[in-house]
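Project standup — Tuesday

K.O.: blocked on the structure for the chain from last sprint. Re-posting the sequence here as requested.
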Amino acid sequence: MLTKQAVLKSFKEMPDEFSIDEAVDKLIVINKIQKAELEIKAGKGLTTNQAMKKLKKWLN
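H.V.: unblocked you, prediction finished:
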């Protein structure tokens, strides 16, 4: 669930003119970040080392 505060803060950083597609993309990113933050708080996230091990084949 998006918070009004996060949306307003993010949209204040946008240029004065933007497309609806840019606005929707921004909302999707905000939503995904907030979901990830909740998962991390619930202990479902990975440490940096765990993530690097999982992504090692793409990082080399």
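K.O.: great, moving the ticket to review. Helices lie at 4-12, 20-41, 48-59. The CA atoms of residues 13 and 52 lie 31 Å apart.
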